[in-house]
Fold:
Amino acid sequence: MGYEPLVQQNPLRVLDMNRENNQMGLVMARAGLGKTALLVQIALDAILRGKRVIHVSIGESIEKTKTWYDDILQLILQDHSVSRPHELIDMVARHRMIMTFKVAAFTRSRLEERLNDLVLQDIFRPNCLIVDGFDFVNTDREALDDIKNLMESMNMQAWFSAICHRDDARVSPAGVPAPCHEIDDLFDMIILLKPEPDATIQLDIIRNYGEQVKGGKSLHLDPTTMMVKEM
Amino acid sequence: MKKDLKKVRNIGISAHIDSGKTTLTERILFYTQRIHAIHEVRGKDGVGATMDSMELEKERGITIQSAATYCSWKDYDVNIIDTPGHVDFTIEVERALRVLDGAVLILCSVGGVQSQSITVNRQMTRYKVPRIAFINKCDRTGANPFRVTQQLRDKLDLNAIMIQLPIGLESDLEGMVDLISMKAVYFDGDQGEDIRHEEIPANMREEAEAKREELLDAVSMFSDELMEAMLEESEIPEAMIHEAIRRGTLSLELTPVMIGSAYKNKGVQLLLDAVNTYLPCPTDVENTALDLDKDEAEVVVSNNPDDQLVALAFKLEDGRYGQLTYIRTYQGVIQKGDTIINSRTGKKAKVGRLVRMHANEMEEIDGAGSGDIVALFGIDCASGDTFCSPGINWSMSSMHVPAPVISLAIKPVDNKAQINMSKALNRFTKEDPTFKTFVDHETSETIISGMGELHLEVYIERMKREYKAEVEVGAPQVAYRETITQRADFDYTHKKQTGGSGQYGRVGGYLEPFEDGEYEFVDQIVGGVIPREFISSCDKGFQKSLEKGILTGAQITGVRVAINDGSYHAVDSSDIAFQLASIGAFKQGYAKAAPVIMEPIMKVAVEGPSEFQGAVMGSLNQRRGVIIGTFEEGNYTVVEAEMPLAEMFGYSTTLRSLTQGKAEFTMEFATYKQVPKGVAEELIKAFAAQKKDA
Structure:
């Protein structure tokens, strides 16, 4: 496809993402720190590696979600010279599908039904699922386990975002804050976004492909563009 | 004639087809005593509603063209622009929105926010039109104004807040509770003309109190006094609430929601009150024009009747007495006998008859002040032209006009039809900037093009009915385009010597893709190798070449042509010689520049029950679509996709049979994209075969 340089130069290569499919990732942060921006960059990286991505947005509109992709893709195109930008934009559109749900409408069975619709009719065969806005507070372990099984049976990678709150001090032994402190073992990758005094946002990689990471803090989000940069 | 502009309302009534817009307008005209009997849209009396003045509209029960009409309610002058509800006519809607100050968005209490409402809402947002929502048909089975209000928030992203509550619903709809005055309102009399205020029914008291709290919370954002009064828990005067709602509405940050049933004569007068109270007057809205004498600098129109006239012709109609031009004045006054200038053409015109329109009837007037909507007779102009007093040369900012995406060949059946057809086409192209027509020189066919199948169908119908022009219609054709994808050089000599004076010209240079526009000509000739006087001949030759591409005969766009070399002959070089040399040069370069075919891509939204989502996506996928995304809420789902127009013919039939008629779709032009290889090959083959036959 000719986008290898974009893939190789991506700071996200620090994460061990292309080892195999069925793993689950989690991005956690307080509200407004850039979870969606990071998820979209993870999704775009997967697309550039030839994967197909379904982006589930819970409580957001299709238009808004699409704008995220358009904006971040524009930033990537500004930073890297790509010979035919229109082809890249087209390719991204063909490898991505957005599914938005009202908060109450998202369930595992609904998701499975939708994925089957796509796969059985050969409309879209996703390799990666992004779930933004998942309600971890009102979800029990069982439900999430259920989704993990679904991902495994469909041979897909999944990335979730979760909001944590400043005044909730609960935290798992691995350092994962509430509301995910009791289910953190379900995830193979965990990234925590932390604001720094210099206004950048640090990516604290707590777990990378199942391995506990210490000092995995070499990445941050540029506060103006929300793009992942290496320190 | 100077009137209080604070008491003028120019409003539009905009909505999804079949949500009862025409019925509502009819009731408004009845209550404002412009008409004395009510006719239903599909009434048995065969008269039809007053606003639908065209025969065809009466027959189909839909409103195609927006007619402007005037009425007065409680001392306020209200001009109503009835706008069409189908997406194929959006230019009409957009033109109407341009001259409106405010709008009533009508929704069906059963159907709720449908895709067309989303389009209309987006247009209103683009033109910054403050709006009131009116949830109609509350007497219908399945009516749920609360759900519709929630949809206004979720799907249209409006800060919608109910200012009324229904008393009973469906067939039990009796009236409504006004949450501002906290009174129950009933509509008595055969036609609901007697309004009766009562205490709120005891069983609704609690609900009304709670809803009023919600309302006050929402509107207190827009009024510090109201916020204070609420904090002090003192008595809140009604006027204070009205003022806060008005401020919120004007800032587009609040949409008051009203309910009723126009058909059952409930709630219409209250809606009129709200139009007076909440919607803006001409001076509340800032409109800008472009000063053509100052390099199109933006200027704000003053609304001051003492200033020079600036008026926009937003709609033309061909009536019994000649061309009728609807205008909206933005400043100054227009009077019988005045001289006005069309700023597009620079032509002077004298104002003859001036009328106020009420659908088919008209009222002769002597003049109109700024902010008014009136109609002129006998003025030659096109839709969208600006008229000014002598002395200024302003143009109301150009309206966004999309390019046509579909075309049809039409052939008159006989000579008489031929004459009538040209009259009709002449009229339609003046009325509607998205409707275009031209004669294909190769096939001598008349081609009409527009925004969709229905758009063109309606004009063909109108030709038959209004102009008695019977035409044979060809199959619809997608407006393909061609463009180049790489730079290519050319060097071409045109030489002809067959007795008499010869022709000679050589043109050298290159073609390259030009993404920012359709065509650019760059002159890099040095040393006079092509004499100055023939440079424009080259330009002309290249422009001629753009008319038909070699792949499919479609128009070529997105090309920059540069000439940097050439030669001439002192005797044999001429304008025509260099034109022909350029045509040859273009052909030579074009073939090497990797030309491709582009096709119109439409943004399509299909909505319906969730159970059909899989089937809908399958049908879109089969038609070469790219599915952008889906939205789900309960059992309702929307699929958004980008579809090639060429694959959308007959889609409504497919969709109907796939979903038992429960899903519907809207479509609007999005962009041009390159046709995939396989399809391109077929198009090229078909074009070659067609050329062979000809």
Remarks:
- Residues 575-592 of chain B form the longest helix (18 residues).
- The longest strand of chain B covers residues 595-609.
